[in-house]
Amino acid sequence: MTAPQEPDRSNVVWLGAPAFPEAARAALADSQLRANLKHATGTIRDKRLAVTAELDDWEQLREAGAALKRRTLRHLDHYLVQLEESVTRAGGVVHWAADAAEANAIVTGLVREAGAREVVKVKSMATQEIGLNEALAEAGIAAYETDLAELIVQLGKDRPSHILVPAIHRNRAQIRDIFQREMGRWGRPAPDGLTDDPRALAEAARLHLREKFLRATVAVSGANFAVAATGTVGVVESEGNGRMCLTLPQTLITVMGIEKVLPAWSDLEVFLQLLPRSSTGERMNPYTSTWTGTTPGDGPQNFHLVLLDNGRTATLADTVGRQALACIRCSACLNVCPVYERTGGHAYGSVYPGPIGAVLTPQLVGVEHAASLPFASTLCGACYDACPVKINIPEVLAHLRARVVEAERARHRLPTAEALAMTAAAGVLDSPRRLAAAQKAAALGSRLLARDGRIGALPGPLHGWTDSRDLPQPPAETFRAWWRRNREQP
Amino acid sequence: MRVALFLTCFNDTVFPETGRAVVRLLERLGHRVEFPQGQTCCGQMHFNSGYRPEAVPLVHRFAEVFAGYDAVVSPSASCTAMVRDHHRTLTGVQPPQVYELSEFLVDVLGVTDVGACYPHRVAYHPTCHSLRMLRVGDRPLRLLRAVRGIDLVDLADADTCCGFGGTFALKNADTSAAMLADTMQRVRQSGAEVLCAADNSCLMHIGGGLSRRRSGVRTVHLAEILAATEPAAAPAAATGGGRR
Lengths: 490, 244
Hints:
The structure holds two protein chains of two kinds. In chain A, the strands form three sheets. Chain A has a six-stranded parallel sheet, sandwiched between helices. A four-stranded mixed sheet of chain A has the order 8-5-6-9. In chain A, strands 11-12-13 form a three-stranded antiparallel sheet. Chain A is of the alpha/beta class. The relative contact order of chain A is 0.13. Chain A starts with 19 loop residues before the first helix and ends with a helix. By secondary structure, chain B is an alpha/beta fold. Chain B is 48% helix and 11% strand. Chain B contains twelve helices and eight strands. In chain B, the strands form two sheets. A four-stranded parallel sheet of chain B has the order 2-1-3-4, sandwiched between helices. A four-stranded parallel sheet of chain B has the order 6-5-7-8, sandwiched between helices. The longest helix of chain B has 18 residues. Chain B starts with a strand and ends in a 17-residue tail after the last helix. Chains A and B meet through α1, α15, α17, α18 and α19 of A and α1, α2, α3, α4 and α7 of B.
């Protein structure tokens, strides 16, 4: 046997995507995108605040959710084995996938076994993470997204921009154009004279999708949770399209990240309160589907559960970073993030955008493959306050920044310009005498650059500051000099 | 009570008037303040940029310089948060008790009316570190409300980050500028002539933008408003950094 191969995690990050600052620049130039994002995140943010404020025990619920996730992750091996036993006992088949390639191969094989050339899909982050649709297409199998927003993204040959609202970056008029242009190529065309009225758009999608639901023999879903004790798998969704996929076809294949397991049925009490309020700002989720193995004569007669690692075990090994695995994919952090609100999800170049993406993606793929993401935050902490399971995202961001810098140091024989500057600054700051000398130099040097006490243009990498802001000219006398002159007199 | 001023390297270099204001204010309240000359930097820039080994000696220095004081007071919420949240994790050494200025005045000295007079229209911008790391709550606002002559106006979406974020402003300059543009719009809508905050770093960012746009709105640190006693002259043209 050859040496163990590097796991295939390439689908989590989009190959060839530029680093965050460059991708953000393009997004920021799109004023329509910014308006769409501002409107959508603002609306959902207000809704979430209103419904979380209704509960007296919201903070206790968060704490309970965080504690449950912490404990489950600590004993993940135990609960996963228990889940496998329960699912098998109930008539399902469990598969273990170490990485994306393995998971895709398993699903493709199962679809072929079922003799199908097409599948209907329930919106799923896990299958996006492994690039399942692309893998199925390569195998000659068509995968139809049935979630309305995913449908918009798929028809528009686009990428999702948001975890919960993948088409958040599109407005109604854009959606109508996509429907008119593309629906016919994928199945039933859009009705003639389609307007951008939400009702008309929903009806067009409904007609288009109904055809697929009734024809499909295989469905692929993700999972919001799986209960180890009972082997029950669950999906929460808003439109009912998921339930169609979960009940009509003969074969159901669920791809689930291993961190989604919960110990007991009663744990759902906590998460089914936390999730809808945090994600859609609703008190209760519209469609909550759970299934346990197979039931003769009712629902899918073959059930397969693919348990996906794809970098999760490695993430679990990092005692600070592992808290990112507690994520329940509610996307509250995206909606409150001032960076996400300006750039949208595409700038993150990854299936997981926003603050949670900035901490999850680098861990799933290795920090060196997503080095700009931990820096795509001001560390303002709004995400931590919003997170229903209290993931300390700023803490993990700062932790991953240190790992990025370490990785850079290990890779380059010569330090980067930034590392040199940081080392120099540390040297200056470690001595009051050197600091005073540097302050003097700064005051003198700035005289050359300043006009009317303002510095309007800085050289080198510092131009990033003066492109949009003036810099005050450092005064001639520092505080410490003033102090010595006024307070330290004998 | 032995009180030490931790001014921060940034204030010391660029905004020394904030330090002078803290000294003036605390002396007016009857306290003697010491400024330990060995102090330099809390290590926040290195820590937040991923250069942890570089931050370690600074953290040790901080602990040594401020050992023996009953209280360390700092006019910077973000540096106070750095000391409180990260110093012990970095070195295992228990840091001295550091208070952000509004915490020190309200919690330790038990005053909200510091005898200040500042007859200007002021908006208060709660910086992210004061709001979410230190949880100073409404302490700065209680102090400001007690200032004579002040006309305190509301800032819309005040809890939104201004877009500074330390090295973020350089590494992600475009996103930072977009956040700044929205912040400036909120400031202008407030009708304030002065924008006040507990962190000069955020104020330098917002003030730098306001100055570039020749907006006429000045940025002033909370300490300087609390230290002011006499009706100041009408605000001069914007100076960006808030210096008068």
